[in-house]
Amino acid sequence: MTSKDLIQSHDQYVMGTYGRYPIALSHGTGATLYDFDGKAYTDFASGIGVVSIGYGNPTWAKAVADQAGRLAHVSNLYYTEPAAKAAELLCTRTGLAKAFFSNSGAESNEGLIKLARKYSHDTYGPGRSTIITLQDSFHGRTVTTLAATGQDVFHQHFYPFTEGFVHVPAGDLDALKAACGDDVCAVLLELIQGEGGVRPLEPDYIQAVAAFCKERDILLLLDEVQTGIGRTGSLFAFEQYGLTPDALSFAKGIASGLPLGGFLVSERLSGVLGPGTHATTFGGNPIGTAGAAVVLETLTDAFLQEVKEKGQYIHEQILAMNSPHVTDVRGLGLMVGVVLQDMSHRELVAKLGEMGLLALVAGTSTLRLLPPLTITYKEIDAGLAILRSALCPGT
Ligand code: PLP
């Protein structure tokens, strides 16, 4: 089969909800992918921050295959070993008390929203259910997480959206305080707004938000769907911001390619969602959590230090290109945003694909790089060479 044949049959039968690039991928190894015609691509996208420990990772593939052969699924009415192991690794590494497993980032954020509203209702009674989120945020595509998402572009078509979300500008503490009336139960935010343009929040701002929330018993909820699981050079980004949230969501990189997500809660919230209040058929599925355990065991302190160093290297190399199209390079670890001028980020990503480099867009003018965390310097250099020729034509 050629890439062209595959694209044709896919487009005939799969709904056109995605603006896909004309690239059909067949297999991969490390941070390199191959299409059906044998063309190689360096991957600076990792399936949008998902394939955290690389394509064809032998330890992951064996653990997943062994688990598939032993026990694929039993429902959450019974106990399984991989879910227990993955939850223990997440809790002991973060200091948070308990995990709930779901299947995606949006669903994980839905869980955080239910957690906050139920905690508040149990503690204070009705009327305290509003959640503050940030403009430029992104929290998912369900009707409720679209309402939580602060970017106006997502508030179309699907009315009526879920009530009870107020969006405030990132970095503006006074605006956040002004929005926190007696009806507010939680603040939900991304420490680095990923889809919104790879925009890190200032540590001073977020620490002041955390202190304010604590004073009012407003829960601080972090959406670490994109920043979590080693992406920024620590298991979760909050570790680099000098605070601990009341709860956080994760997904994307947790199982390096299997559909798993979830949320972690602090001790005092660990009993809020009791039996019958929250559930999902596939959550904590043994195959997904077996993959997650391998990911979590791979992300040692030494490994995470390398993530920081590789991110720094990419950052410096892009700045050293002196491209007239680059106005800023920002982010943390291997979550890199390259802010562009006089060049469309969408056209650039399409062109990079043709040249053999997979990358992403974010916001209105940012090129976003989220390579597998296991990417080698050789693969980084191969990708940067392509990026240089696109950003600095004629040099
Ligand atoms: N939250 C953040 C910060 C995200 O970046 C994303 C996806 O890009 C989501 C939530 C939604 O995750 P999913 O697509 O797995 O539902």
Structure description:
The chain has about 400 residues and is of the alpha/beta class. β5 (about 130-135), α6 and β6 (about 165-170) form a beta-alpha-beta unit. The chain has helices at about 5-15, 45-50, 60-70, 80-95, 105-125, 145-150, 175-180, 205-215, 285-300, 300-320, 345-355, 375-390, and strands at about 25-30, 30-35, 40-45, 100, 130-135, 165-170, 185-190, 190-195, 200, 220-225, 245-250, 260-265, 325-330, 335-340, 355-360, 360, 365-370. Helices cover about 35% and strands about 20% of the residues. The protein folds into two domains: about 5-55 and about 300-390, Alpha-Beta Complex (Aspartate Aminotransferase, domain 1), CATH 3.90.1150; about 70-300, 3-Layer(aba) Sandwich (Aspartate Aminotransferase, domain 2). The chain has a seven-stranded mixed β-sheet with strand order 4-12-11-10-7-5-6, with helices on both faces. The protein is built from twelve helices and 17 strands. The longest helix is centred in the first third of the chain and has 20 residues, at about 105-125. The protein starts with a helix and ends with a helix. The site of pyridoxal-5'-phosphate has 14 residues, from α5. Pyridoxal-5'-phosphate binds near residues 140 and 225.
